[in-house]
Amino acid sequence: MIMFKKESMALAAACVIAQFLYQPAFAGPDTPEKKSWGKRIGSALRVDKKLKGIASYYGGKFHGRKTASGDTFNQNEMTCAHRTLPFGTKLEVTNPSNGKEVDVVVNDRGPFKKNRVLDLSKAAARKLGITGIAKVFYKPKAQVAKGESEAIH
Question: Could you say which of 33, 75, 118, 130 would form a disulfide bridge with 125 (CB–CB 3.0 to 4.6 Å)?
Answer without folding.
Answer: 130
